[in-house]
């Protein structure tokens, strides 16, 4: 019996020992006493049940995702206010606790952090200094160099990163004393390196106008990964390649506005602007905005901060008031409104108290108040009813080019989730139908959807027709993406009851069997016309009835000057990732959460698609000057369109960055020149800042960024489709052989845009410089380029061209009598011929030569077939030269026309 009792006691001791080891080594809190189950210097004693609950919570926290995001930001458990979850909000605490180098005092930090977790606080703000200063004879002789430190071994690195934000105590010095300046630089460098060594996620730095220059010097070296304490400027232990995985942020502590007694000519924003500019607008530099009890009433000054990257908000205790109905802390209505705006831009806040005794502060009550304020933030318009939009904040994307590229299923899926847009389309379609119905007379409706995608617009049309109980209609869905066509076919069988006729064609080449009552398209881009909707819809307007309606009928682009350093920095980073263009000469689609609009938006280029305006306009190029005025000092980073329909998420704004940010004074005029140009098979924008500072014209001739005006023409034959590229063909290359029947609910039709042309053939002989001859027969009505492809005639230059009228690789030479039979070349063909090699006065592009009876027996000389250099991607030298990249021929030099 005694033996069993001893064995039982031993097991109990082993269990207690294992629990002790687990607590010490896995939870990082040291010096536990087993008699009272309390933590040394914790300041409170917990019962066994309380300790068990705390242990369970700590274990839950330990295994949860609490060690930071990809950006190493601080991450905590989900918080709850009034029974509702508030995710991704992190609240810190700063009190005036003084640490010494005595071991028994230093180790109070883990216990202090445990107390904070018990008080609903996620992290602590701790003054962190470098222990190397303790061994420096020079530094100990000066009062302004660091002397104190907290050893790193008291906690594991993951808890330093998760639970602590470092703060560097102010270092005073005389800016005109060289020794003082060097000591300041050394102190700040040591502090930054030690904080980085600890793995802190963020560090708070205070500075003044006098210390700005040396601080910028230190921060630039820190961001580059070099040390000012090493003579050879070797890289620190952290390497550049790992920066994306672990990034240390610098939070610059500044007041929202100066206190009135301290007010100077330059406010806090000017100070931050100077430091940010000196550090190259580095994204790791953010502002820790202190919300004072006394605020100015100039909302422009407050709004300007929304254009900056806010790392956190610092809320001192004097901001709070006692609630009228009790002892709970609250804030004034003005502070409440201000915080509701700022909390939409940052999810971190720090409570700051002057007291040294944590037990005297009702931290839980203040925490509840701040979390309630965060819960009631003024949600940004784009984020209402969408939990995903936050992840798109300030993320730059190059605009889609749906005419040049087929969209992916993922892209279609994103568009289709925007129910607001399709509700607006459905309402517009209903209104158009309603206008055409008079009394009991319900006409037959012919509706064409141009660019049907995966069918959301088709569904909207069917709903509108069903709403009015239209008995007879014809609905044609035109889509060039063969992958999306298969989806349309599936929906037609399973959802639309075979009521839709599906046509696989480019809208610009489609020839309908009858003119339409209503044309519907969603080719609009973020900037209105940037997806080339004018070029497409002007062609589609040809098959609209005289009383027909096009949806959309009218759209216009708008511009505003914007203060957005973060967007400009992100755009500048693309410069390092591209080889052939300048990233600051591109427009970017972006959800601009961190941007301050300097002045109201103004209209730019209008486009109309109405009856009477359905002819292609003579004006191909557009130009306009816009003038704005700034009411406050700010930094002009670029130009940005205005917002759009609430809750609509398909179209983000488009950001046009300036080549360099420009400081704008209050009252200064901003003058922006903007162009939309068309030529050489592409459309592009150019922009130029003329005031208040003159900058170079950006993106001239579309050198860095343009939209390819490429026409996809589907050729039937064999087992599938052959894709060729062409632009603005003089004569139509494709026809619908049979008219689409009018149905109520008929058989689904998937038609190819090109069908057989029921006419005789003519003979054509091709001559090459090798002395070879190829005789073949082509269909009257086809182009010479069609014939080469259909008859598989081995001409090297044509194989590279594949129908791209934006190049001259299908250049051929005709005999004079045959040349005279052809219509005169159009302007776009002449532009390409000017670039052609071996140009003569009877030169034409094969894609522009339509076969007719008069050309029977014609002889064609192929210019480029004898040059083997085309096979390795380089054109022969001569009047012009070319390089081939990804199937696109780019020319340098020009040819002279005889």
Automatic annotation (TrEMBL):
Domain PRMT5 TIM barrel: 121-374
Cofactors, names only: [2Fe-2S] cluster
Pfam families from the UniProt entry: Fer2, PRMT5, PRMT5_C, PRMT5_TIM
Superkingdom: Eukaryota
Span of domain PRMT5 oligomerisation: 555-705
Residue ranges of every copy of the PRMT5 arginine-N-methyltransferase domain listed in the record: 386-551
TM region(s), chain numbering: 9-32
Claim: Ribonucleoprotein is one of the keywords in the record: no
PROSITE patterns for this protein: ADX, SAM_MT_PRMT
2Fe-2S ferredoxin-type domain residues: 776-851
GO biological process: methylation; P450-containing electron transport chain; regulation of DNA-templated transcription
GO molecular function, one term: 2 iron, 2 sulfur cluster binding
Keyword Iron carried by entry: yes
GO CC field: cytosol; nucleus
Sorted UniProt keywords: 2Fe-2S, Iron, Iron-sulfur, Membrane, Metal-binding, Methyltransferase, S-adenosyl-L-methionine, Transferase, Transmembrane, Transmembrane helix
Stated name of the protein: Protein arginine N-methyltransferase 5
Organism: Trichinella nelsoni
Lineage of producing organism: Eukaryota, Metazoa, Ecdysozoa, Nematoda, Enoplea
